[in-house]
Amino acid sequence: MQHSDSEPRVGVSQSSPPHSHRKLSSLPVPPWPVGPGAPNSLSISSGLMHTQASEKRSACQELFDALNQCHDNLFLKWTGGCNQVKLDLNQCLHSESVARSSRNREDAKLRRARREQALKDLHEND
Questions:
Q1: Does the first or last residue of the chain, that is N or C, have fewer Cβ atoms within 10 Å of its Cβ?
Q2: Which has the closest alpha carbon to 53: 101, 87, 96, 106?
Q3: 45-95 pLDDT tens trace
Q4: Would you say 80 and 87 are in contact if contact means Cβ atoms under 8 Å apart?
């Protein structure tokens, strides 16, 4: 069944044409610099990982390098060819994080024990 132009159609807004789209120029402009020349931005072809993460985690450096090398091939990057390397990197980073948390917990126990002993020694003389 066809509708005539005089009848309102159900579910269709009468205020805008059926195929209207927002123009790109009407989208908001971000307040930060964008693009390959912007400071602290990484272009697709730069092949760099987040430098802070890769420098701090030298145990996983081999995996960072492998992922960077894989991402240099855009076909592999965009078709999931680098997914296994990324999963291996995530696993390495997670295990390193767990080990670091464990070390920090043990260090905190030692510091707490020293602090409690110092307070005990301080109050013994009262």
A1: N
A2: 96
A3: 445 555 556 566 678 999 999 999 999 999 999 999 999 999 999 999 999
A4: no
Cα separation, 67 vs 83, whole angstroms: 9
Sorted by sequence, the CB contacts under 8 Å of residue 71 that are 6+ apart come out as 47, 77, 82
Residue 112 structural domain: 50-124
Asked if residue 27 is part of any domain, the answer here is no
Asked whether residue 93 is assigned to any structural domain, the reply reads: yes
Residue 13 lies in a domain: no
Our measurement of the distance from residue 123's CA atom to the centroid of its chain's CA atoms, rounded to an integer in Å, reads: 49
Q: Which residues contact 84 (CB under 8 A, 6 or more apart)?
A: none
Can you read off the two tokens belonging to residue 17?
A: 């044409």
Q: Which tens digits make up the pLDDT trace of 87-123?
A: 999 999 999 999 999 999 999 999 999 999 999 998 8
